[in-house]
Amino acid sequence: MDLDLRKLRYFAALAEHRHFGRAAEQLFIAQPVLSRQIKSLEQELGCTLLLRTTRSVELTAAGKQLYEEAQQLLSSVTAAVRRVHDVDQGVQRLVVAFSPGLPVSEAIRAFTSRHADVEIDVIPSSWWEPDRPLRDGRAQVGYLRRQFDESGLRILPIGHDPRVACMPATHPLAGRPELTSADLDGERMLDVPRRRTSSLEEKFELIASGHVIALIPLSIARSYARPDLVHLPVTDAPAIETCLAVAADRRDRLVRDFLEIATATLRRA
């Protein structure tokens, strides 16, 4: 079966807005056209993607999976088209993926000072699958946290990111200077696997509302600081290793130069 990218884009817009009218407005098409295209996509796939009511649109389990796949696929197609245009126009471009909270700007500045003719783009990687941009071609280099699937990748260790306990400012433990893992026994902790596709903002809302506590990297805690949350060191929690990652078979000059400069810069930082 050939998957129609136009229908996939329509579905992704609908999955994002969960509303036919708003999705159609974003796509600059009529709402009945969008409805027909989504029904056609469901028929082609042979499964129900949406649960429709008079007031809302909800994704089925199959719809949620397709939305996750569609985001990655459409991003890959966009990146491929851009690479074709770059070659046609003689543009040198380097794309760097980064895990949330890991600042790569200093390394990019150092690289740009020596390669002013190279255009640099950055894209965030998901916390549950940080290596994905390297595998689908959207990025040449990643500044990531371990653990992830390292098969087919070359890894350059950079440093370590301590983990802290993130909790509401009103929590009984919030006034302590530091914690141990034993202090968190009996507390309701964030179930990472079940919340895999949630955004960091959603997770912090859950924490702030008093539902859960989460162990998070210190760099994320600093990047997403808010007054209703506190972040306490957990003295016996193992730190997370940070690294630069690149496809093992990449040996082009731009990537090699960036790795050399970024490794030295990020390790100093």
UniProtKB/TrEMBL annotation:
Belongs to the LysR transcriptional regulatory family. InterPro entries: LysR_HTH_N, LysR_subst-bd, WH-like_DNA-bd_sf, WH_DNA-bd_sf. Keywords: DNA-binding, Transcription, Transcription regulation. It comes from the Bacteria. PANTHER family: HCA OPERON TRANSCRIPTIONAL ACTIVATOR HCAR, TRANSCRIPTIONAL DUAL REGULATOR HCAR-RELATED. It comes from Streptomyces siderophoricus. Pfam families: HTH_1, LysR_substrate. This is LysR family transcriptional regulator. Residues 3-60 form the HTH lysR-type domain. The keyword Cytoplasm does not apply.
